[in-house]
Structure to design on (289 residues):
């Protein structure tokens, strides 16, 4: 099984996770810029975070044989904090950097006027930069939030095939498919979508424009949920080619030409990474005596 997890916050995860991901067939990930739990108080926090996503984290992933990409954006939750607004001025310069494959995650949290404004501004940036947009749907009032999300995307002038609407479930998938956008599903350990429900949705709606992710982060989550969904698909009678389509070819098609998918040169599975440093830091902690 080869897997591209298109929504995985590796900054919050450990080297054990990287090893388990590689062993399960994950060869590439996309890490969307998001909220850190702890509110940010200035634009400098965002700059350091964005730099880490396209610098240190990409280096760290490569040490474990995994290609790492990022989406850059102001998340919906912090769109409401005036201290964070200034970041909108620095986002466009990140959108042209290598390995930045979309604007995101954007969208609604509580559906405030501030969120409306920040969402529309960033969709315009996606158009300018000729990048797709990764759009988060709110965990509360999901149906109304998804409907409004699709309206805003339409008004912004982005074609639906350039938009991935994420965190969908049985109640919102139909709307997104009717709109012609890509449908994203985050598979969680104990809330929202699980892999069995996911397989039922794939049976009902087919595999076209369907994308599955683990959305693993600093909360209770499981970075192997993409692999578990692939296994559940096989048990349910889907073919290996079907699994490859959902877990690899679909996200590759959506994110497109900016992905870097060649194997990491010099990486050998199961071996301690060769000594390497990124701006003076290494993933190694001393050498075996
Ligand atoms: Zn996320």
């Amino acid at each position: 099984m080869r897997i591209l997890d298109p929504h995985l916050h590796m900054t919050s995860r450990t080297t054990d996770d990287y090893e388990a991901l590689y062993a399960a067939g994950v060869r590439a990930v996309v890490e969307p810029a998001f909220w850190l739990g702890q509110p940010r108080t200035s634009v400098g926090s965002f700059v350091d975070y964005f730099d880490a996503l396209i610098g240190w984290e990409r280096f760290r992933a490569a040490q474990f044989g995994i290609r790492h990409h990022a989406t850059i954006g102001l998340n919906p939750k912090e769109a409401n904090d005036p201290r964070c607004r200034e970041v909108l001025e620095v986002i466009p310069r990140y959108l042209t950097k290598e390995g930045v494959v979309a604007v995101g995650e954007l969208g609604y949290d509580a559906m405030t006027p501030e969120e409306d404004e920040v969402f529309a501004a960033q969709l315009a940036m996606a158009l300018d930069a000729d990048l797709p947009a990764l759009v988060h749907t709110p965990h509360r009032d999901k149906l109304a939030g998804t409907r409004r999300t699709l309206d805003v995307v339409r008004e912004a002038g982005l074609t639906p095939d350039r938009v991935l609407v994420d965190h969908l479930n049985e109640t919102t998938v139909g709307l997104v498919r009717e709109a012609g956008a890509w449908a994203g599903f985050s598979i969680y350990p104990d809330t929202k979508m699980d892999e069995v429900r996911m397989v039922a949705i794939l049976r009902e709606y087919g595999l076209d424009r369907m994308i599955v992710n683990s959305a693993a982060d600093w909360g209770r989550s499981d970075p192997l949920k993409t692999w578990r969904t692939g296994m559940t698909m096989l048990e349910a009678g889907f073919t290996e080619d079907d699994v490859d389509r959902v877990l690899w070819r679909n996200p590759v098609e959506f994110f497109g030409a900016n992905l870097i998918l060649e194997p990491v040169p010099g990486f050998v599975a199961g071996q301690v990474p060769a000594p390497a440093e990124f701006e003076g830091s290494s993933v190694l902690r001393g050498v075996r005596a």
Q: What stands out?
A: Residues 7, 9, 32, 34, 105, 215, 217 surround zinc ion (CB under 6 Å). The chain is about 40% helix and 15% strand. The mean pLDDT is 94.
